[in-house]
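Quick log. Single chain, no ligands specified.
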Amino acid sequence: MAGRVRAILIAGPTASGKSALAVRLAQQLGGVVVNADSMQVYRDLRIITARPTPEEEAAAPHRLFGHVDAAVNHSVGEWMREVGPVLRDVWAQGGLPVVTGGTGLYFRALTEGLSQIPAVPEEVRAAVRAASEGVPAAALHDDLRIRDPATAATLRPTDRQRILRALEIFAATGRPLVSFHGEREGRLLDLGETVAVFLSPEREVVYSRIDARFDAMMSLGALEEVSALARRDLDPALPCMRAHGVPWLIRALQGEMALPEAIERAKLDTRHYAKRQYTWFRHQAAGWTWAGPEEAEELVLRHMQAS
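-> predicted structure:
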């Protein structure tokens, strides 16, 4: 690898071992683990989002984990505004950022810049949210398909949050959301300045780990954690309310389904998400090295020695 490595990027599907690898690398390289997972920013959900444990956080410095309240509609734009100063602080102290997470859009923004989507006025956002209250996601997707068919074609009919975002952008600008995607600026890292690794265990191994991890989460108090969140009576469209497992466990808490069924549905949703992570990185993240968990650590260390 030519030139100095300014950061290590560790991505991968959920339950692939990213957090443990990031801690080991940070320990060996004088690094700081920096979060690039859109759900692990929320302080309300340590257990069910598999945030690093207190023991892991004590083993190496961690930044941007659990610092956002569940009531905040945190976004990739907010993360970029936060991560820039963090990276500069780590570099100023002679450290190496080890950026880890499963949110592909965060890594794309980091290395390619953000799409230049204008801010949505609060009155427009409020109007769209009020009109959508109680409307099924599929019906909102139908509405989006009429107004903005290009963006609708890129979204799943069940992805309520992104559908609402597209409706807000169209209401505010009159332009399709996808029309802004080619307009990017503000990248913080060139991919060539990094060692970028996508952890890629066999899918069946990941699916098995997801199931076992969810069972472990339940034994550690995930249901109580979600119950505390539910008592806050937040907007169900907020990102935190859509963390994997949260909607199903809330339904169980409200008596709408049995807890064992809710657990199985949560596991299934998480396995589907892992599948989408594999697909996204395969098609959207050129320049990354795919590696099994056993070889990834050696690969990163070898690159660092050669830089």
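Strands lie at 7-11, 31-35, 62-63, 96-100, 114-115, 184-185, 194-199, 289-291.
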